Automatic annotation (TrEMBL):
Protein name (record): Uncharacterized protein
Signal peptide boundaries: 1-21
Source organism of the structure: Butyribacter intestini
Keywords: Signal
Record bears the keyword Signal: yes
């Protein structure tokens, strides 16, 4: 009987310590690090461009006078596709 009471008490202690422990501590750390990562920048020509470029020195941009730097997310929102030359 004494063994049974001790095992029940130990079980309750373990369950209560698990319930009190913070959940997903590693995922919150990963999320915090992900926010620190900078968004990837790409280049495009506003008004006449249908593609984004990984580098400002892409040969298809040689004659372009207005080259803007934007995030990849914004380029996709503008429905630009990846350049066939530099991607």
């Amino acid at each position: 009987m004494k063994k049974k009471i001790c095992s029940i008490a130990l079980s309750l202690c373990l369950v209560s310590s698990i319930a009190l422990a913070p959940l997903n501590t590693t995922s919150t750390t990963v999320q915090a690090k992900a926010k620190k990562v900078k968004a990837k920048s790409v280049y495009y020509v506003p008004g006449s461009s249908y593609a984004y470029h990984s580098t400002r020195n892409c040969r298809t941009l040689r004659r372009s006078k207005t080259i803007k730097k934007i995030t990849l997310k914004k380029a996709k929102a503008l429905k630009l596709r990846a350049c066939k030359v530099c991607h």
